[in-house]
Write a structure and sequence with these properties.
heterodimer; B: alpha/beta; 7-stranded mixed β-sheet; 6-stranded antiparallel beta barrel; 15 strands
Chain lengths: 318, 268
C-alpha cells in the first residue's frame, strides 16, 4: 500500500491529529458544507476549525463582504454567527461522528466575552480545543486589536486559560509591529499552541463609484498573495520561541494551496497547517495536499513528518 | 440539496449571441443531468483569476449545459476565449432554484440583460408542465439581446421585448411591459412571476407584484466566495414572517427568493 510506512500524525497540545491538515475558521462553516461535494470526506482531515463564535449572535457586515484582488481575496464578513449557545445546540450534534478533531474559534469585543465563550465551549464534549481569535477590536480600548498589544493579548489568553482546561491555540494577527512579542505574551499567559497568520488588513476601491468596494470599507487579505508574509512570520515566531525556551507547536496559515506550500511552512517551523482560501478555488484541495505530502516526503527521503518541522537549513547571515 | 460535483467540463461550442455576450456549451454529464432552472455552476476561469465565477444554467441539452456569459472582466474574458475541446473545472449544480408551484395557471417570466439566461431552462420546464407562459425581456438595445424571441415563441411562449434605446421593442424598462401585462387581465388569476436581472429591475418587479397581488420569485446575485454556503460572503437580508430580519445566503438559500421575503431597502 503506497505511503503505509509514512507517518503524518502530529500532536498539538496533547491532541493527536491523524495528519497536519486543518481547515481554517470561516472557510468551512460548521463542518456541514463541503460534505455535499461528491468525494469530500471530513474524516480525512486532521482537524476542523469552526466559524468564529461570539457570546451573542452577530449579524455581520453589509455586503459586499468579499472582493478578489491579484492572487487573493479581501473579506469582511464581520463575524456573522448565531452565538455560542446556538452553535453548541444546533451545530455540534452534526459533528458527533466526525473523526477529525473539532476546534472552536472564539471571538469577542471584551475580555469577559472571550472568557465566557471559552467557558461554554469547555463544557461541550465535541470541542477538542479552542482557537482564540485575538484579531478582534477591543471596544473598551477604542477598537484597538486585542492581538496588537502584549498587554491585551496577555489579558485575553489569561482570562481564557482560567475558564478552560482544553488546549488553547492563540491565533495571531500580522497587523502588528512585532508578532514575536505577541507570540511570547500568549505562550506565557498559557496558550498551548499558536496559529498564524490571520488575514492582512487591506482594501480595494471601485474607481467608477469612487468608493471602497467592501461594505465595511476595509477587510482582511488572504490567499496566495500573503503566503510569503505568513511564511516569514511563522519562521520568525518559531525561532523566537526556541530562543526564549518557550516552544509550543505552531500552526501555519496563509495561502497554502498545495503540498509544496505546506512543506515550506513545516520546514519553517509549523507542526500543522491550515487551508482556507484554497478551498473556494478547489474543494478537493485537501485530499490533493495530503496525497502530495506523501509523494514529497518520499522524494525527500523522510518517513515521519515530525522530523521535518523546523528543519529549515540556514544560508547564514541574518 | 442534491449532490454537488466538481467536474472537468469540456467546451463543445462558443458563439457570440449579442454584443458582449457569448453562449457557451459544456459537455458535463454529471452536472447537466442534475441541473434545475435557477441553479448555477461555479467555473474556474484561469488566467489571473483566483475565485470561480458563478453562471446560471441557461439550457440543458442531454449531457451538456449552456451558460450565457456577459464579458465584463478578467474571468468572463478568459472564458469567452475558450475554444471547443478546452476544459474547465465546473462545480455544480449549486443553489436553490425556481419553484414551479402546483396549481400555477400562468407564469410570467421577466428577464433583464444577462438575467434572461435562466429563462430558457425555466421556460422549458414550465411548458413541459403545460403552464401558460409569457416572457418579457428587457435590454439596452436590440444588439444586446442575448436570446432570440423566436426560440421562445416556438415553445408556445408569447414573448415581448423592451429596449432602453433604439427600435425593436417597447421603448422603456421591461417593468413597463409587466405593468401592462398584469393590468390587461390577459393572465388569469394565480399568475406567478419569475424574475432575473439587475437589482433595480427586480425591486420594481417586486413592487408591481405586491401591488397586483401576484406571487413573485426573484433570482438574486451577490459577490460569492465558496458558492457552497461556508464563507457567508453572499449575504442577503430577508424579512421574516413574524417580523424582524435575518441574513440568508444567495448561494444556498437562494439564488431564488420569494420577492416578499427580500428586504429591498437593504441596498441602493
Amino acid at each position: 500500500m503506497p505511503g503505509s510506512n509514512l507517518n503524518l500524525k502530529v500532536k498539538i497540545a496533547g491532541l493527536e491529529l491523524r495528519n497536519p491538515l486543518i481547515v481554517a475558521s470561516g472557510t468551512f462553516g460548521w463542518g456541514e458544507v463541503f460534505e455535499k461535494v461528491q468525494g469530500f470526506d471530513n474524516n480525512m482531515l486532521g482537524a476542523i476549525v469552526l466559524k468564529g463564535t461570539t457570546l451573542q449572535p452577530r449579524k455581520g457586515n453589509p455586503v459586499p463582504r468579499l472582493v478578489e484582488t491579484p492572487s487573493g481575496i479581501i473579506n469582511s464578513i464581520g463575524l456573522e454567527n448565531p452565538g455560542v449557545d446556538a452553535v453548541i445546540r444546533d451545530h455540534l450534534p452534526g459533528l458527533t461522528r466526525c473523526r477529525a478533531k473539532v476546534i472552536a474559534n472564539v471571538a469577542g469585543s471584551t475580555v469577559e466575552e472571550y472568557a465566557e465563550v471559552a467557558a461554554r465551549f469547555d463544557k461541550a464534549d465535541r470541542i477538542d480545543a479552542v482557537e482564540i481569535n485575538i484579531s478582534c477590536p477591543n471596544v473598551k480600548e477604542g477598537g484597538a486589536l486585542f492581538g496588537a498589544s502584549v498587554e491585551m493579548a496577555d489579558e485575553v489568553i489569561s482570562a481564557v486559560r482560567e475558564r478552560t482546561r482544553k488546549p488553547i491555540i492563540a491565533k495571531l494577527s500580522p497587523n502588528v509591529t512585532a508578532i514575536t512579542e505577541i507570540a511570547d505574551a500568549c505562550v506565557r499567559a498559557g496558550a498551548d499552541a499558536l496559529s498564524l497568520i490571520n488575514t492582512v488588513q487591506a482594501m480595494a476601491i471601485d474607481v467608477r463609484t469612487r468608493r471602497p468596494v467592501l461594505g465595511n470599507n476595509i477587510g482582511g487579505l488572504s490567499g496566495p498573495a500573503i503566503k510569503p508574509i505568513a511564511l516569514l512570520k511563522v519562521h520568525q515566531t518559531y525561532r523566537h520561541l526556541r530562543q526564549m525556551g518557550l516552544e509550543v507547536p505552531i500552526i501555519g496559515i496563509g495561502g497554502i494551496a498545495c503540498a509544496r506550500d505546506a512543506m515550506e511552512f513545516i520546514l519553517a517551523g509549523a507542526t500543522a497547517f491550515q487551508v482556507g482560501t484554497a478551498l473556494f478555488v478547489n474543494p478537493m484541495v485537501c485530499s490533493e495536499i495530503l496525497d502530495g505530502l506523501r509523494v514529497l516526503m518520499r522524494e525527500m527521503g523522510e518517513n515521519d513528518i515530525n522530523s521535518l518541522v523546523g528543519a529549515l537549513k540556514s544560508n547564514g547571515g541574518e | 440539496m442534491s449532490i454537488i460535483v466538481d467536474e472537468l467540463a469540456i467546451v463543445e461550442s462558443s458563439e457570440c449571441v449579442a454584443e458582449g455576450h457569448r453562449r457557451i456549451r459544456f459537455r458535463s454529464p454529471r452536472i447537466a443531468r442534475r441541473a434545475a432552472p435557477g441553479q448555477f455552476v461555479n467555473i474556474r476561469c484561469g488566467g489571473q483569476t483566483l475565485l470561480r465565477r458563478p453562471f446560471s444554467f441557461s439550457r440543458v441539452v442531454g449531457g451538456s449545459f449552456e451558460v450565457l456569459v456577459r464579458v465584463i472582466g478578467e474571468g468572463t474574458r478568459r472564458l469567452a476565449e475558450r475554444k471547443p475541446g478546452d476544459q474547465v473545472w465546473a462545480l455544480g449544480p449549486l443553489g436553490h432554484g425556481f419553484e414551479i408551484v402546483r396549481g400555477t395557471r400562468c407564469a410570467v417570466m421577466v428577464g433583464g440583460g444577462c438575467g434572461i439566461g435562466p429563462m430558457e431552462i425555466l421556460g422549458e420546464a414550465l411548458r413541459r408542465k403545460r403552464i401558460e407562459t409569457i416572457a418579457l425581456f428587457g435590454c439596452q438595445n436590440r444588439r444586446t439581446l442575448p436570446i432570440s424571441p423566436a426560440d421562445f415563441e416556438r415553445r408556445g411562449i408569447a414573448t415581448q421585448v423592451a429596449v432602453m434605446e433604439g427600435r425593436g421593442g417597447h421603448r422603456g424598462p421591461v417593468t413597463d411591459l409587466l405593468e401592462e401585462c398584469l393590468a390587461s387581465g390577459e393572465n388569469p388569476d394565480g399568475a406567478v412571476l419569475y424574475a432575473c436581472g439587475p437589482w433595480g429591475m427586480l425591486k420594481k418587479t417586486a413592487e408591481i407584484a405586491a401591488r397586483r397581488g401576484a406571487r413573485c420569485q426573484v433570482l438574486l446575485e451577490e459577490m460569492m466566495g465558496c458558492g457552497l454556503g461556508a464563507c457567508m460572503s453572499c449575504a442577503c437580508e430577508t424579512v421574516l414572517p413574524g417580523g424582524g430580519v435575518a441574513n440568508k445566503k444567495v448561494c444556498t438559500d437562494g439564488p431564488m427568493f420569494w420577492a416578499d421575503q427580500v428586504n429591498w431597502n437593504a441596498r441602493k
